[in-house]
Amino acid sequence: MTTQLDHLPVAVIGAGPVGLAAAAHLADRGIAFLVLEAGDSPAAAVRQWGHVRLFSPWRYNIDAVAARLLTDAGWVRPDDDKLPTGAQLAADYLQPLADLPALKPHVRYDARVTAVTRLGLDRVRTTGRAETPYLIRLANGEEVLARAVIDASGTWGTPNVLGASGIPAHGETEATAYVESALPDVLGRDRDRFAGRRTLVVGAGHSAANTLLNLAELAEQEPGTTVTWAIRAATPARTYGGETADTLPARGALGTRLREHVESGAITLLTGFSVQAVTAGPDGVEVSDGTRTITADRIVGATGFRPDHGIVGELRLDLDPIMGSTRALAPLIDPNEHSCGTVPPHGADELTHPEPGYYAIGVKSYGRAPTFLLATGYEQARSVVAALDGDWAAARDVQLDLPETGVCNSSQDLDSDTIDAGGGCCGAPAAVEPVSVGRGLATGVSGGLLRTPLAVITVPSGNDEQSGCCS
């Protein structure tokens, strides 16, 4: 029996790694689709942090079905053991994927989605809802109809605030001219904004660590460049991560090198610092936690990201009130309890909302949790597309192929693009809890945020900054 939905495509929002993986799976199953990308090219957000090298090698950054489609078209797969930069991920994998004849005619650029609803229905109306097409409105006023929606729009455009309580600090909005978003290209494109200046980096994740290391290198080259790092936690242990115990050498090296710069004094570390006020002054911008005040020329907000569910406000979503993910997924990704290494595989069942045919996948599906991995997003895409095709056996057969061993040596050269430049894998050290196959990546830090103490302050501050623990 056919319905008015059968002739409509599945709409994929976002042409990043996970959105294009979903498109590849839709093409492979012969399901009509349309990809709507706000940028002027695939992987527009990835290209913005193109100068950053991923922690994980190519083998964990390529979707299996996408790889098969590309190989059939003559694509030469990158070396599985090399560590790509964001620019290489975009140029060597995502651009060729988007350009495949099976995908290219169905990918639209400069197509920013501003709203998703049901044609003629708001979220209150029940009768006939499941049989009614989705209506997707674009920024230019155009409207597109779809049978289902896969939202892989990500969170890059909605960074968290500097303020310690989840809302902007006093004066933060007025001081935006002094604030940089995460992962500026300190040694390249954005060098002039940091050279010879005082920079404060706020955040405890690996985005902060990358920026801090680049700033420390810049300080060696440019007199007058100073670097201060402010975190809310009582210790930087979570940012240092596994160091020598980390499954991924590049990620372990990041923590090791960062610790060395802090201990040498190249980076001034302030622990227990919760941003309460940001004030522009004649000598720069002053940042205060109520007791201490730092004066800087630039602030890098490496406090993570949060999803924007505003565009789907007229859909029936069952969002966890804390994480902002689906309720089923929330306990699996809660950063208070989990690190990347303890998030289990999951798929369509955990991503289902009361609105039939709508799925958020990729980093957006994780809400405020910072434990997302590209490989996890690819498995989400595979499972969701199988579910849309009615293949529930495949949809529910969720699994991940991820590293499960420790690393002997993480003193790797951060400029190296190989995973063994600092030593090979030798099995998990005794101090690290073993990680079973399919359970994600070991970080060297057991559990989640609750395992790392926060500084006690007089005003409740909630959890530490959200900032991704994985590439």
Radius of gyration (Å): 22 Å
Low-confidence spans: 404-414, 421-471
Summed over residues and divided by their number, the pLDDT gives a mean of 85
Q: Enumerate the strands of the largest sheet in spatial order, edge to edge or round the barrel.
A: 3-2-1-7-16
Structural class: alpha/beta
Helix and strand run: EHEHHHEEEEEEEHEHHEEEEEHHEHH
What CATH first level of the largest domain would be assigned? Answer: Alpha Beta
Kindly report how far apart the N and C termini lie.
45 Å
Strand count, sense and barrel status of the largest sheet are:
5 strands, parallel
List keywords for this structure.
471 residues, alpha/beta, FAD/NAD(P)-binding domain, 2 domains, 11 helices, 14% strand, globular, disordered C terminus
What is the compact description of this entry?
Helix content is 22%, strand content 14%. It has 471 residues and is α/β, with parallel strands linked by helices. A 5-stranded parallel sheet has the order 3-2-1-7-16, covered by helices on one side. The protein has a 5-stranded parallel sheet with strand order 8-15-9-10-11, covered by helices on one side. Strands 4-5-6 form a 3-stranded antiparallel sheet, with no helix packed on it.
